[in-house]
Amino acid sequence: MGWAVERYDVVVVGSGVMGLLVAYELSKHGVSVAVVDENLEPGFGVSKGHAGVIHVIQPPFSSLKSVLAVHGNRLYDRLVGELGVRYRRLKALLVASNADDPSPP
Ligand SMILES: Cc1cc2nc3c(=O)[nH]c(=O)nc-3n(C[C@H](O)[C@H](O)[C@H](O)COP(=O)(O)OP(=O)(O)OC[C@H]3O[C@@H](n4cnc5c(N)ncnc54)[C@H](O)[C@@H]3O)c2cc1C
Questions:
Q1: What is the pLDDT of residue 105?
Q2: Coil, strand, or helix at residue 27?
Q3: Which class for 66: exposed (0-12), middle (13-18), buried (19 or more C-beta within 10 A)?
Q4: Ligand 1: which residue has its CA nearest to atom 3?
Q5: Would you list the domain boundaries of the chain?
Q6: How far apart are CA 81 and CA 93, in angstroms?
Q7: Is the pLDDT of residue 103 over 60?
Q8: If 26 and its partner were Cys, which of 30, 31, 38, 86 is the partner (CB 3.0–4.6 Å)?
Q9: pLDDT, tens digit, 9 for 90 and up, residues 53-91
Q10: How far away, in angstroms, is 48 Cα from ligand 1 center?
Q11: CA nearest neighbour of 59 among 31, 25, 91, 97
Q12: Residue 16 in contact with ligand 1 by CB distance below 6 A
């Protein structure tokens, strides 16, 4: 029995939220993408256990991580529309541990 060889422009290793979003965005530009994972089902890595919070900001607030959180948060309005995912923005309260450093202890 012979093997069927399939070719893709890009192979993404890992079907967590990062791998799937990278594959999704690439596919919109005509790039053929295969996503592979050592788990049997997609999203069964760390992504499976997330708490469902789409962060608005990340401490320390001046960090690149925080800048990306602000940018990424805004992308969700478009993304959920494209994917047809139910989504509702809720309010949250961030409490600073002291006046100088807003990072949590
Ligand atoms: C308890 C908890 C709560 C969290 N809550 C939130 C939250 O509310 N909001 C938030 O934004 N973030 C949250 N996070 C963080 C968030 O879940 C992770 O940052 C995110 O899921 C990471 O996604 P990822 O795609 O990078 O990794 P993963 O979801 O881990 O995906 C990586 C995939 O790659 C596969 N893989 C790895 N190596 C190989 C290999 N060699 N060959 C084949 N496959 C491979 C793994 O099997 C896995 O499926 C939380 C994390 C935890 C632990």
A1: 42
A2: helix
A3: middle
A4: 50
A5: 7-50, 51-105
A6: 26
A7: no
A8: 31
A9: 888 888 777 889 989 999 999 999 999 999 999 988 888
A10: 7
A11: 97
A12: yes
Mean pLDDT is lowest, of 21-30, 37-46, 73-82, 94-103, for 94-103
Residue predicted with more confidence, 4 or 100: 4
DSSP letters spanning 59-100: SSTTSHHHHHHHHHHHHHHHHHHHHT------------SSSS
Q: How far is the C-alpha of 93 from the C-alpha of 51, rounded, in Å? A: 16
Q: Burial-class residue 105 by CB neighbours within 10 Å (0-12, 13-18, 19+).
A: exposed
Cα angle 76, 18, 56 (rounded to 5 degrees) comes to 40
17 Cα nearest atom in ligand 1 = 25
Evaluate: CB of 83 within 6 angstroms of ligand 1.
Answer: no
| Residue 11 identity (one-letter amino acid) | V
